[in-house]
From TrEMBL, chain A:
GO molecular function: asparaginyl-tRNA synthase (glutamine-hydrolyzing) activity; ATP binding; glutaminyl-tRNA synthase (glutamine-hydrolyzing) activity; transferase activity
Protein name: Aspartyl/glutamyl-tRNA(Asn/Gln) amidotransferase subunit B
Pfam families: GatB_N, GatB_Yqey
Residue ranges the record marks as coiled coil: none
Subunit record text: Heterotrimer of A, B and C subunits.
Enzyme Commission designation: 6.3.5.-
GO aspect biological process, one term: glutaminyl-tRNAGln biosynthesis via transamidation
Functional description taken from the UniProt entry: Allows the formation of correctly charged Asn-tRNA(Asn) or Gln-tRNA(Gln) through the transamidation of misacylated Asp-tRNA(Asn) or Glu-tRNA(Gln) in organisms which lack either or both of asparaginyl-tRNA or glutaminyl-tRNA synthetases. The reaction takes place in the presence of glutamine and ATP through an activated phospho-Asp-tRNA(Asn) or phospho-Glu-tRNA(Gln).
From TrEMBL, chain B:
Species this chain originates from: Methanocella paludicola (strain DSM 17711 / JCM 13418 / NBRC 101707 / SANAE)
Name assigned to this protein: Aspartyl/glutamyl-tRNA(Asn/Gln) amidotransferase subunit C
Function: Allows the formation of correctly charged Asn-tRNA(Asn) or Gln-tRNA(Gln) through the transamidation of misacylated Asp-tRNA(Asn) or Glu-tRNA(Gln) in organisms which lack either or both of asparaginyl-tRNA or glutaminyl-tRNA synthetases. The reaction takes place in the presence of glutamine and ATP through an activated phospho-Asp-tRNA(Asn) or phospho-Glu-tRNA(Gln).
Signal peptide coordinates: none
Record keyword ATP-binding present: yes
Amino acid sequence: MDGDGLEGSVIIGLEIHCQLNKLNSKLFCGCSTKQQGLEPNTMTCPVCLGLPGALPVINKKAVEYSIMVGLALSCEIAEHTQFYRKNYYYPDLPRGFQITQYDWPIASNGILTVEADGEERTVRIRRVHMEEDPGRLVHQGSIETSKFVLVDYNRSGMPLLEVVTEPDLRSPKEARRFINKLRNILEYLDVFDGSLEGALRVDANVSLRGGARVEIKNISSYKGVERALLFEISRQQNMKRRGVKVTQETRHYDDERNCTITLRTKEQAEEYRYYPEPDLVPLSVKSWEPRLKATLPELPDARRERFKKQYSISDDHAKVITSEIRVANYYECVAGKCEPRLAATWVADYLKGELNYRDRDIKDAFEPEKMIYILEQLKTGIITDKGAVEVMRALLDEGGDPKDIILSRNLAKVETDITKAAVKDVIKENLEAIRDYKDGKPQALNYLVGKVMKKTNGRADPAEVNLLLRELLECT
Amino acid sequence: MAISVKDVQHIASLACVDLNETEQERFAKQFNSILEYFKELDGLNTEGVEPTYHVIGLNNVFREDDAYEPLPQEEALKNAPRHEKGYFKGPRIV
């Protein structure tokens, strides 16, 4: 969105559905939440299949997790909360209604700050509520042309939290950052594993100022959120440009084709015919708040501040490192044994960079002990920066032991004597460049440094070469 | 507000229930008489009466986060009129 003059005209609100997939059992029954990759309909029971006479009973821990999330988002916890039936006729619901919350959601009126261009934007959280996940539909071909649907109820009854924001986001990029930050907080709370397929699904409401609101449903990838919003915004802008009115509707996001297609005109809230779920009793759990508040772990923003103080690292480094709990834990492990600022550079800049390049996660990186070893070699001058990067790349691509890699690839830095000899040779061989340098062209020095590095197969320390060259050039 | 035959048709279509014309009129009449009764209730003085959120007066009933054995797939599919490759088979949705 940057630079195309749209700031201020785009209005985005999000509804984010997160599976509480760290629980052992589903929201209202004892079926396991470990339903990923199973054969269809092998993790069901009368309750989550909605068979007549089956009675739901709520998972206590799911309520505790929901309160913890509410507290982490600075929400108020409801004095009284209860479930409702949301009636709609769709094959993903075996009963013909979804058990969700309507009035009195478990948590409401929270905030989360997100980085906007050059400032922090406060995004208001309207509500956080509990609900059951519906089943998974498999279409034959595309959703539009499929003659029938195949339904897998393994996912039916998975515990979901729905986080609903006020329309406070102003660009697709902010929306992506918001979702990343929310995911990060949920992972810090240890209630959510965002790496599982379908763990997080987003509905986004988007409008241009003054225009009708369009809801995009079922965006199921992190990258998809930004792409779906970009697509939908440009669709609405084109309509506006042509003088066509945007109508309020629900659209489906097609991840493969990267476009949105119309699904149906929006159902009004009253058409869901919400009414209190008679099979579940109301909850009065506000009294749990102090106990759960005491168990809240250190959250990303707090950890970032602590890292800055405790390890004297920059705000940028602290932000990158704490934006994922696994990275933060990795860093603390390394920083405990090496110079923390050096560790920050190597974890935040180099390691994360190499992982991003490979589209890989920190959990697929090599062990912190290996990083500690590399940084020790670097600190004591055994290897150069360049050598350290090479060791890291080799570890990521082939695995192995950093010590063996340094030996087998001849990465140990050459002795100063050898560097000196190489510097002398280069001075002898490049009289023209030396003349340039003396005539006041400092870039000639870089050229000479390059020559020395080449002569030593990159194993000299460029800073040392630089120094030696200057010394010798001053004397001649 | 009175319930018209058109309202009945709308609600029936949301609930996927087929009603013929006679039934539509009968339901409209019945809905209206229920609403009449609610009007009577609206006239009662409820000041100082605690709201009731649920009919049986219980609250805070939980179960622990333990998993049990699920149904075998063939049991789960047993009542389904149509299934395929372990999935329930349903009508197209768009």
